[in-house]
Amino acid sequence: MSNTENTIDDKKYNKLIVILSVVIPVAVAALFGIKIDVELPVFLPPIYASTNALTALVLVLAFIAIQKKKIKLHERLIKVAIGLSVLFLLMYIAYHMTSDSTPFGGEGGAKYFYYFILLTHIVLSIIVIPFVLITYVRAITNNIEKHKKIAKITFPLWLYVAITGVVVFIMISPYYA
């Protein structure tokens, strides 16, 4: 496939990427305002934190796979990482629609560290959405050179979001009711 054909294929997805990149964060923010009086059968934060940890592990394994030129394994692992991220998001929304947010109870340096990690996690979790989508589209449209170029940005952003999700959970977990 030529670069022109790759560009045309990429552009077919641009509108969807923009829509998802806006709709997902807006929907999550809107759903935070909706409270459902339902008690979930499980306590979700440790489950979705584990999902974040697993996402980080899968991303590292995908990185190792591509370094070893195991392209099919890399593709499968990235699909798993995307699936885990979607699963995390669904559980996160379900938890926050059915439970009140837990305030951080730490003080001093721990408090500043927690809020720094939380803020960067939230901001980068929004920023990473179009990066993941563009990177994925460039792979599925066989635009490999552009895929490699953006993946060098996407990978560390996505990994940071996954890891800091776990850190936020660990730091807030002593304050859950």
Automatic annotation (TrEMBL):
InterPro entries in UniProt: DUF420 (IPR007352)
Residues passing through the membrane, by range: 16-34, 46-65, 77-95, 115-137, 157-176
Key word Transmembrane present: yes
Keyword set includes Transmembrane: yes
Key words of the record: Membrane, Transmembrane, Transmembrane helix
Pfam families the record matches: DUF420
UniProt name for this protein: DUF420 domain-containing protein
Annotated source species: Algibacter amylolyticus
Source organism phylogeny: Bacteria, Pseudomonadati, Bacteroidota, Flavobacteriia, Flavobacteriales
